Amino acid sequence: MNILHLLSTPTAGISRTALDLCIRLVEDEHSVAVISRGVEAVDAPFKAASIPMAKLPLRGAFDLVTPISLAKVLNRMAAPIVVHTHCLRDAATALRARRLMREPAKVRVVWTHHSAAPAGKGRALQRTCAEVDAFIFPSEAARSAFMASAPAADQSRLHLVPAAIRPSKAAVTPRSESSEEITLVYIGPISRAAGLEVLIRALGKLTDLPLHLRIAGTGKAAEVMPIVRMTRTPELKDRVEWLGLVDDPVQLIDSAHLGLVSADTAETPAMEILEFMSRGVPVIATTSGATPEIITDGADSLLVAPGNADALAAAIRRAATDTKLRKALSDVALRTADRRYDYDDFYWKILKIYEQ
User: Fold this and answer.
1) What angle do CA 76, 80, 86 make, to 5 degrees?
2) Cβ 354 vs Cβ 165: under 8 Å
3) Following DSSP, what letter does each residue of 180-205 receive, concatenated?
4) Which tens digits make up the pLDDT trace of 308-341?
5) What order of strands is seen across the sheet that includes strand 53-55?
6) End-to-end Cα distance, the chain
7) Which end of the chain is more exposed for a tag (fewer CB within 10 A), N or C?
């Protein structure tokens, strides 16, 4: 089978989902390639995994170059072909390319809707939804929000496949509890929507505790710099470490006593949550998007309302000062990740959708 991923949206979670799939598909001797916009931060992990890459504009409705070029690529490929897209813009582009092909029937277009936000409305959306062959939703919240706008998609094409990550081969490193300092780790986009401003405000309320926050991720300078400036106060300047983009987060995650996932939008940082859980790191997260579907407050995590710095500070204080609570959350998180988010189960469900 020939599988082609379109990646115009350079978010870490979407890229990680596509990368894991590509690596596993190659292991099973499928032909796999990725078309992106040429963003180095997105492309680097695929290149490191020897996944073939190509660059196209992928700019949506007014982009004439991409569908024509993509149609030429698809014409040269042998059937069966799956074009896996991860946003509305790329799904519409793939369908435009298919209409230009000599043999459009040999291409199946799949769209994973990662967001727990409505799909929107409009004639273009309705046409896209009418033509996409399969929709994949990583959560019930994503499916419900998508269908709330009544897109033209019958139930037989809707597939709920909870997100999962390929497990790291590295053994879980027991984190030291002998040190007084508690290490907090955030991995994800650096933006206001990611809730980092709230997280920094919460940390400012905990200056009596020996906390050290390590932040890994990238973002646009206009959003990153105001957040960085928030940490340059006398109380916080030695407590926050900015790491930038981290290629392999396993070692960083293993250094954490607590993983922080603070989103203020309908987006669900599922991959980051699963990364922490799979390494036995207790998570403190906001109840945004589908997060409550993935983790359970008081069992394998602590959940707080988005945008509430006081509640977030209280949850961090509770977990940071209670070693037994952290151990209990860690044990359940590991079991939850193993039982509910097995990557083999996820992979075979995706492959079945490809083959239909």
Assistant:
1) 90
2) no
3) SPEEEEEES--STTTTHHHHHHHHHT
4) 999 999 999 999 999 999 999 999 999 998 888 8
5) 53-55, 31-36, 2-7, 81-85, 107-112, 134-137, 158-160
6) 12
7) C
DSSP 119-135: ---SHHHHHHHHH-SEE
pLDDT one-digit tens code per residue, 116-140: 877 777 788 888 989 999 999 999 9
Q: Is the whole-model pTM more than 0.70?
A: yes
Residue type, 183: T
Which residues make Cβ contacts (< 8 Å) with residue 137, sequence separation at least 6? 112, 113, 143, 146, 158, 159, 160, 161
Question: What angle do the packed helices 12-27 and 40-48 form, to 10 degrees?
Answer: 20
In whole angstroms, what is the distance from residue 285 CA to residue 211 CA?
A: 17
Q: How many CA atoms lie within 13 A of 44 on its CB side?
A: 8
**Buried b / exposed e across 193-205, counting CB within 10 Å, b at 16+?**
ebbbbbbbebbbe
Distance CA 68, CA 104 (A): 13
Q: What is the amino acid identity at position 220?
A: K
Selection from 144, 352, 167, 353 nearest residue 268 by Cα: 144
DSSP-derived 3-state class of residue 356 = coil
